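Worked example 2:
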Amino acid sequence: MRALLVQPEFPISYWGIQYGLPIIGTKVSLPPLGLISLAALLPASWQLRLVDLNAGPLTKADLDWAEVVLTGGMHIQSDSTQQVIAQAQARRRLTVVGGPGPTTAADQYAGADVLFLGEAEGRIEELLQAIREWSGKPLVLEAGDEHPDLSLAPVPRFDLLKLADYASVSVQYSRGCPFLCEFCDIIEIFGRKPRVKSAAQVLSELAELHRLGWRSSVFFVDDNFIGHKRAVKKLLPQMAEWQAQHGHPFELYTEASVNLAGDFGLMDGMVAAGFSQVFVGIESPSQAALEECHKGQNLHIDLNESIDRMARRGLEVMGGFIVGFDSDPDDIFEQQSRFITHNAIPLAMIGFLNALPGTALWRRLDGEGRLRPGWTGDQLERPNFIPLMNERQLIEGYRRLVEEVYSPAAYYARCRAFLERAPARFSRRKFQFSELPIAVRALFHMSVRSPWRREFWRLMATMLKRNPQSLGWVMAHAIQGEHLIRYTREDLLPRLDAALAALPNDIGERRTAARRQPPAAVRPRRPGPRSPHPV
């Protein structure tokens, strides 16, 4: 069987770093881990070919070669996924679609020949049988009631990747999260009981990347890396030993809940293993907003102290922030800006609250009649529900916030402030001689060609004075800043202006009556269908 695995395209976004990638000669920020994980489960006799639409086009020759096309992904990729389905079916190729998007909103992918909902481990024979015996009629393979044991997961087929296309690569250690955030679909897809791979599995994946010649950053895509603390504390010393034995080839980053800051041993273990960054869902400085979305882990801890503690321990916090909660006050945008600035968070991902299909938030807003149809997964243009705040006020406030946070002066000021508090050495990865051309090209661009080169030189001066071993960090953040600043100015702000222009003049005042009596909190139901890591 000849199987073509197609990664749908992601639209430009804060996460994609699309404006920064050409500076370092890469095409995509991260590879399609879901597809190469699925590929590892397919029969060894199958011929496999991978096409990542974020790196290059899907050609007629690719489709003519294939007998079956496997694709799918997240909600934000839905338009591209539909295009892949149409192209494959136009060539009369069987199309199999999976991932978190189809798993939580299967009706939006009804055109697929086979919909595979849920995680693949332990169910691959079901999928193979469906492919072999497909009758020509649409088929839906429903997710089971049980989550698979991750010991069933083989090493992903990293060899299918053109590694030079990627700025970073990804691996996965765990699935699931023990918390109850109302807006999050992770607990609905993967459950609230974290499941983990063995240390041997993780080290095998790192060893395979090392064998293939990878010597750069590795993203652990776990939605909460520390969800199973006891297990991760056993893993980290083995990772640290492996890194030391191999000359610290990888710089690691991941996602974790803010309670990480309360465990000094865990933070030190992560730093020893090679972690230098962690994405934390901070969401809001507003206590009312955190209570509203059931973010209990953020309520029982001092967020300012926690971020500072992680930074001084050697873990830079990348923060996720949300505006548009029912309880948000008029000055929430100023509160968010002050919080991000005070805590020196260079990489602050700020978006509107949106209701993902299948979440407790989706169910609550659906019950209140507030959902809007036709959402594409975009969290940066307009909420997919009717907010309680006057919508013009909400979009205008968000526009001010991102324009301020991602002005060159503000961004580089946060970078300088972070260097002031970071330890003298917060990365053990050694510079590779093969990276010299990339470093020279990036340095020339940022120091000579960039419109905000003056801010770059101020950051360089701070680095030389306070933290001279952090040149790699400075260059990486300058490249990321190139994208964040340009994306905000050239893409996001014009889109927000267009959204504002399209609003009716009588959009209405704040729904004060509703705010006086906010909707009752809805606890998530038992986790629904599961899905593999986004394909």
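The domain at 2-141 is CATH 3.40.50.280 (Rossmann fold). The two ends are 20 Å apart (CA to CA).
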